[in-house]
Structures are given as structure tokens and as C-alpha cells.
Write a structure and sequence with these properties.
binds FE2/S2 (inorganic) cluster; globular; binds flavin-adenine dinucleotide; Elongation Factor Tu (Ef-tu), domain 3; Rossmann fold; alpha/beta; 6 helices
């Protein structure tokens, strides 16, 4: 097993055969920064000081010839060929309290949620616990590289659910939507730092755009199950394009009440739609106004939405440590 020596903190850890440096670091309890786990964000970049590595994803958007010339690699894609010395700054907020494990799970059920989003239920007795809002890498047979999907449930008895949007001509989603109950898949997780902060006393705002529905549903359920809504209000915003993309409050984690409100907004509605219209970040700014800076905010969705939400939150004076998201690609 290749030994990895990290600087400047002086950590030493071992990689399993075929394992990435990021995964091995997290398993060893080291806070290596990351977000997407699929080669797109660049948060896991490190300097290779000694040794050689093999990159899993040659076309990773966050990696280039220029990076290679500088000796910089992606932790989520680099598998060591032997002993290596690496440089990255470890940060406490990335230390996982549940280590990722790789488990073969069975597809139990597929339930349609919207026109192109379905919830996939997988079961394996040895699937570990996870925090609401975390994600896993699904390794689909015949598809190169794991794809990240966020869990939509609360972990109970080794059952992990994922709300997945079918992508036009998508490699992984094409195979998943064609799968029948009984099919097996490798699930590697949990990952991600955008999970429910149960110790925060603030009201909770959830923003889900399209395929970002899954982790927000899990967080809404987690907040209710932990009794957080006795003393806080939950505001759930779901943004989609057309009427066929809508889902109801029950899917989003519960029934509307004094302590929980659910608002759907459509950016391209037909004439029958009487609810909020426009982009999600504008609708949230309009509904929450000055309240926003006193809330704990979680969001997930496409990259354009992520950038717009971050800007809106900044303008509303939300402190960065009250904003929780993993980059979706
Ligand atoms: C943290 C995170 C959480 C996510 N959660 C959800 C979710 O809950 N629900 C949901 O519907 N989607 C989610 N996504 C998006 C999802 O991971 C996929 O990008 C999407 O399903 C496209 O898959 P596809 O293979 O069908 O599409 P394709 O168009 O065939 O693939 C394109 C995408 O796959 C990824 N990819 C391509 N090749 C590789 C490779 N070799 N290794 C690794 N990745 C590769 C790239 O990110 C690329 O954007 C999430 C993404 C991230 C990063
Ligand atoms: S590129 Fe490695 S975590 Fe995003």
C-alpha cells in the first residue's frame, strides 16, 4: 500500500490499491479540501513533491497541461503509483466524522418525482450513517468514473435514496434510468461538507434548483426529525423551469405549517401558473429580504444557479460561514 507523506502538517497515510489521494486522506481523518469529487471544481488541488501518480479522469475540467507542468494534480483523481510526498494545507472543516466506505448495494425501487427526476432507493446492510445534505459516488457498471449524487433520505437500516435528474444522452443517468430493481451498484460515501448544522439556532433556508432537490429534501427531513422546527422556521424554495418540473411540499420534506413554508418558483411557466415567476435567487431575495442574513442557508443546483445565489447572499450581507453548498457539475 503506497505511503503518502503530506506537508506542511506532517501527516502520513496509506492509500489502498486504486484509491485516490483525497479518499485515502479523508479515511485517515485528514482534512484535505474538496467539493465535487469528480475533477471539476479544483478544490482538491495539491503539489506533487516526490513520486508519481496516475490521473483517473484525463479530461477533468479543473486540470490542464499548465497544472501538470507546475506539478499540480487533483486529489480526487490522482492515484499514487508508489510512495509519494505531497503538499496541501489540511483544514479542520474537511475532517469527516463518518469515513467513506465502498459498498455493493441493490436497487430496491425507483419512484418518479417530476417529469425527469426519479428517486432511486438502494439497500445494503453495511451502508453507514450519513449527515443530511451529504453525497456519494455511484459507480455504474460500464460507465467510466464515479458520479456524485446526494442522498434524499435520512439514513435508516442501510437504505440510501437519491433523487436523480435524467440528463439528455447522459452516460450514467442513461444507465441508471434503464436499471431494474435487483440491479447492483457500487456506492462510495458519504462525502460533502454542506450538511445540516444541528447546533445552529438560526432559521433555515433551503434552495433547490432542478437536480439540487435531493440534498435539500434530506436536510428538511433531518431538521424536522431532530426537533429543530420547535424553535426555528424552515423556508424551502424550489426553482424549476416549467410546470412539469414541479413537485409538492410532501416531496420536499413535510407539510406546510406555521414552522415550515414551501415555495416553488418557475422561470418559464405557462399561462396557468399563478405562483412566483423568475429565477430562484431573485424569488428568495424578494421573499426573505433583510431576514436572510440571520438564517443558515443551504443550497444545491446547477453551477449558474450556485453563482447567482452566492452573489445574492453576499449582497444581502449573509456571513460566508452561514452559507453551505457543494459544487454541482
Ligand atoms: C457534489 C455533487 C452532487 C450531485 N448531486 C446530484 C443529485 O443529487 N442529483 C442529480 O441528478 N445530479 C447530481 N449531481 C450531478 C451528477 O453527478 C452528474 O453530473 C449528472 O447526473 C450527469 O451524469 P451523466 O453521466 O448522466 O451525464 P453526462 O452528460 O454523460 O456526464 C457529464 C457529467 O459527468 C461527469 N463526468 C464525466 N466523466 C467523468 C469521469 N470520468 N469521472 C467523473 N465524472 C465524470 C462530469 O461531472 C460531467 O459534468 C451532483 C454533482 C455533484 C458534483
Ligand atoms: S476537482 Fe477534486 S474535489 Fe472538485
Amino acid at each position: 500500500m503506497p505511503k503518502i507523506t503530506q506537508s506542511p502538517d506532517g501527516h502520513v497515510f496509506e492509500c489502498d490499491a486504486g484509491e485516490t489521494i483525497l479518499r485515502a486522506a479523508l479515511r485517515a481523518g485528514i482534512g484535505m479540501p474538496y467539493s465535487c469529487n469528480t475533477g471539476s471544481c479544483g478544490n482538491c488541488r495539491f503539489q506533487l513533491l516526490d513520486g508519481t501518480v496516475t490521473h483517473l479522469r484525463e479530461d477533468a475540467p479543473a486540470w490542464s497541461e499548465r497544472e501538470l507542468k507546475r506539478g499540480r494534480w487533483l486529489g480526487c483523481q490522482a492515484v499514487p503509483d508508489g510512495a509519494c510526498s505531497v503538499k496541501f494545507r489540511s483544514m479542520d472543516q474537511y475532517i469527516p466524522d463518518i469515513s467513506p466506505v465502498s459498498v455493493t448495494a441493490t436497487l430496491v425501487e425507483v419512484k418518479q418525482i417530476t417529469r425527469d427526476i426519479s428517486e432511486f432507493t438502494f439497500h445494503a446492510d453495511d451502508l453507514p450513517a450519513f449527515h443530511p445534505g451529504q453525497y456519494a459516488l455511484l459507480h455504474v457498471s460500464g460507465v467510466t468514473g464515479g458520479r456524485a449524487y446526494s442522498m434524499s433520505n435520512l439514513c435508516d437500516d442501510g437504505t440510501w435514496r437519491f433523487m436523480i435528474k435524467q440528463m439528455p444522452n447522459g452516460e450514467a443517468t442513461g444507465a441508471l434510468f434503464a436499471a431494474e430493481p435487483g440491479a447492483t451498484i457500487t456506492i462510495d460515501g458519504p462525502y460533502g461538507t454542506a450538511f445540516l448544522r444541528k447546533d445552529s439556532p438560526r432559521d433555515i433556508v433551503l434552495l433547490a434548483g432542478g437536480s439540487g432537490l435531493s440534498p435539500m429534501v434530506s436536510i428538511a427531513k433531518g431538521a424536522a426529525a431532530a426537533g429543530m422546527l420547535d424553535t426555528r422556521t424552515l423556508h424551502v424554495f424550489y426553482g424549476a423551469r416549467e410546470t412539469g418540473d414541479l413537485c409538492n411540499a410532501v416531496v420536499l420534506g413535510g407539510q406546510a405549517s406555521e414552522k415550515a413554508r414551501f415555495i416553488a418558483a418557475l422561470s418559464d411557466p405557462d399561462a396557468t401558473w399563478t405562483g412566483p415567476k423568475g429565477f430562484l435567487h431573485d424569488v428568495v431575495a424578494e421573499h426573505m429580504a433583510a431576514q436572510l442574513k440571520d438564517c443558515e442557508i443551504y443550497f444545491a443546483g446547477p453551477a449558474v444557479m450556485s453563482a447567482a445565489v452566492q452573489e445574492m447572499a453576499h449582497e444581502a450581507g449573509v456571513p460566508p460561514d452561514q452559507l453551505h453548498f457543494d459544487e454541482f457539475y
